[in-house]
Specification:
Elements: H1 2-15, H2 36-48, H3 59-109, H4 114-122, E1 128-131, E2 138-144, H5 150-159, E3 163-164, H6 170-181, E4 191-198, E5 201-204, E6 227-230, E7 238-241, E8 249-254
Parallel strand pairs: 4-8
Antiparallel strand pairs: 1-2, 2-8, 3-8, 4-5, 4-6, 6-7
Helix pairs in contact: 1-2
The structure holds calcium ion.
Calcium ion (CA) is lined by residues 220-222, 225, 239-241.
């Protein structure tokens, strides 16, 4: 740009038609190809230092013409690039819009687990937050008690602000069972879950809904054993028990209303 500016200065001076004597500046002998830019620079420096111009013609006019052409070409390229940037910006906006739509669809399919995570982490009792790999299922659980019956297990969960766990979907059950199976402290413990036989059907304590999904172990449930447990004899499935029986511990959970239990 500096060179363009210098050239413009020269053009102005030339246009004014100043024809005074050139006392100190001398055109280089060689005016041919290869050093015309140096020639123009020399003249411009001469003028900038107070030299008086005279009889300007030939080589610099050619250079100025080239510069004008170059400037025109650059402006064309700038215009093209600006157009490309605008096009890319519009494409990016379209991609961002599609991404937002996809995210909203994902949110519709998988509830946001953030509220449950926050409740889990902020609870006074030490609950643990676990989430499925796809983020669609989350559990805030805690194992409490040491050898207790169903009623005491239910009370122990309630004392921590939670309830005996509801495992009403295959996904939630799989997440909890896998968590227990891979835990050194839990994998061998039998645990009460919030499942009871009421009237003629199995019902979840947490939401009073009938258990439409079940994961009973082989030959379970028995008769007259109206309380549900998990992991008896290291089998990672469900067992019914007499409610007065004492087993290892209670499997509790915290829920938030938006998680739907
Ligand atoms: Ca049984």
């Amino acid at each position: 740009m500096n060179f363009v500016f210098q050239s413009l200065v020269f053009l102005i001076v030339y246009t004014l038609g100043i024809h005074a004597a050139t006392d100190h500046f001398r055109w280089p002998r060689h005016r041919g190809h290869g050093n015309s830019v140096e020639l123009c620079n020399g003249l411009i420096n001469y003028l900038a230092n107070g030299g008086t111009p005279r009889r300007f013609h030939f080589p610099c006019l050619c250079i100025l013409s080239d510069l004008e052409q170059t400037e025109s070409n650059l402006n064309t390229q700038i215009s093209t690039l600006a157009s490309q940037v605008q096009s890319q910006t519009m494409q990016l906006a379209a991609i961002n819009q599609a991404l937002a739509t996809t995210n909203s669809h994902l949110m519709a399919v998988c509830p946001d687990s953030t509220p449950l995570r926050n409740v889990c982490n902020n609870n006074m009792a030490p609950f643990t937050f676990v989430e499925s790999a796809d983020g669609c299922v989350a559990i805030c659980y805690r194992v409490v008690g040491n050898t207790l019956n169903y009623a005491d297990a239910k009370a122990a969960c309630t004392a921590d602000g939670g309830s005996l766990i509801t495992l009403d979907t295959p996904e939630k059950n799989a997440l909890m069972v896998n968590t227990i199976r891979t835990s050194m402290t839990l994998k061998d413990r039998s645990l009460w879950i919030g499942l009871k036989f009421v009237g003629n059907q199995w019902v979840w304590e947490g939401n009073n809904a009938p258990a439409t999904f079940t994961d009973w172990a082989t030959d379970e449930p028995d008769t007259n054993q109206p309380c549900g447990s998990l992991n008896q004899g290291k089998h990672h499935r469900w067992f019914d028990q007499k409610c007065t029986k004492t087993i290892d511990a209670a499997l509790c959970e915290l829920v938030v209303p938006t998680m739907g239990g």
